[in-house]
């Protein structure tokens, strides 16, 4: 049986003001070994995050993504699929686990089908399945990404390299919050002044992360009025931690739809983070993943 190994990074979306647009790939990975078998049925094993929780059959998200991909590529559905998943990205914490699973499935299907299927169609289908492109873009491409959809609904991205003096630190709670639930807390409309506030901050954040990683600029650049406070009632401890960190000068935001908190650490703020974080949080210092999803056939490794 021919197999393929896929490695996909965790991602942090929004980064404060860049709701549904900005995303950062992180050095925390899920690994999937995928193969097609001659026997009918799906065989999935999961270790690490999600083990004992996720479906092990056709409803498994990686399997669903593979099935979607075979359909889009116009390739016959394989009789059987075998997956071995080694998961490190915690689920429903705002670190892009579902996006990583979808990307892994699409890339596995493309590699095993051995057909030419353009990267932009992989990006489009992953975005369609996920509902928004901001986790998908950094998961596929790595680095810091700006993603948007055109008037026909097709997603696009620009990839940037953040300044290496900025280090992402994630503060992961044990509590979970499904992205769908968090999206349900957002209002249909927002005040014009809040939209204009976020537009300025998001533009500043790109400048600060790529060219001017100064704490003062990063603090201003990570302010948000479009999503975090609407969602705070569903994650009061995250909201309080963001507030505490910002009060001592650490640029902190809710990661994705939460409840993980993302802090941008620089040489002058790195020692300020731990004292504000209680025992209920798992602190992980990260690097920015520069390359995104990786696909390898075992025989070429
Ligand atoms: N590696 C995975 N394998 C199977 N299902 C997954 C995987 N990662 C995420 N999921 C599914 O996606 C859900 C989390 O998605 P979501 O609420 O969007 O949160 P996140 O911020 O982690 O993406 C999980 O509860 C699980 O059902
Ligand atoms: N822009 C989305 C990002 C969701 O990210 P996730 O990692 O929590 O799935 C949102 O804020 O809803």
From TrEMBL:
GO terms for molecular function: ATP binding; homoserine kinase activity. Its main location: cytoplasm. It is found in: Cytoplasm. It is an enzyme of class 2 (transferase). Residues 62-143 form the GHMP kinase N-terminal domain. It comes from Nonomuraea wenchangensis. Catalyzes the ATP-dependent phosphorylation of L-homoserine to L-homoserine phosphate. Belongs to the GHMP kinase family. Homoserine kinase subfamily. Residues 220-278 form the GHMP kinase C-terminal domain. Keywords: Amino-acid biosynthesis, ATP-binding, Cytoplasm, Kinase, Nucleotide-binding, Threonine biosynthesis, Transferase. This is Homoserine kinase. The lineage of its organism: Bacteria, Bacillati, Actinomycetota, Actinomycetes, Streptosporangiales. It catalyses: L-homoserine + ATP = O-phospho-L-homoserine + ADP + H(+).
């Amino acid at each position: 049986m021919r197999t393929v190994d896929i490695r996909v990074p965790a991602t942090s979306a929004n980064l404060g003001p860049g709701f549904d647009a900005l995303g950062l790939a992180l050095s925390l990975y899920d690994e999937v070994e995928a193969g097609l078998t001659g026997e009918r049925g799906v065989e999935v094993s999961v270790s690490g995050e999600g083990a004992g929780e996720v479906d092990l059959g056709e409803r498994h998200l990686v399997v669903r993504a593979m099935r979607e991909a075979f359909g889009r590529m116009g390739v016959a559905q394989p009789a059987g699929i075998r997956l071995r998943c080694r998961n490190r990205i915690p689920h429903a914490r705002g670190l892009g686990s579902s996006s990583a699973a979808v990307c892994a499935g699409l890339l596995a299907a493309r590699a095993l089908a051995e057909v030419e299927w353009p990267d932009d169609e992989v990006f489009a289908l992953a975005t369609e399945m996920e509902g928004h492109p901001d986790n998908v873009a950094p998961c596929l491409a790595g680095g810091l990404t700006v993603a948007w959809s055109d008037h026909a609904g097709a997603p696009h991205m620009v990839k940037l390299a953040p300044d290496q003096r900025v280090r992402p630190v994630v503060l992961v709670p044990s509590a979970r919050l499904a992205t769908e639930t968090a999206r349900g807390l957002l209002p249909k409309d927002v005040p014009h002044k809040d939209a204009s506030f976020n537009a300025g901050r998001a533009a500043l954040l790109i400048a600060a992360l790529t060219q001017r990683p100064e704490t003062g600029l990063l603090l201003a650049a990570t302010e948000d009025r479009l999503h975090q406070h609407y969602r705070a009632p569903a994650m009061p401890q995250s909201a309080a931690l963001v507030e505490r960190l910002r009060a001592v000068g650490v640029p902190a935001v809710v990661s994705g739809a939460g409840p993980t908190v993302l802090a941008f650490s620089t040489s002058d703020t790195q020692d300020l983070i731990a004292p504000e974080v209680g025992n209920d949080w798992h602190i992980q210092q990260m690097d920015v993943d520069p390359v995104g999803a990786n696909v390898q056939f075992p025989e070429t490794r």
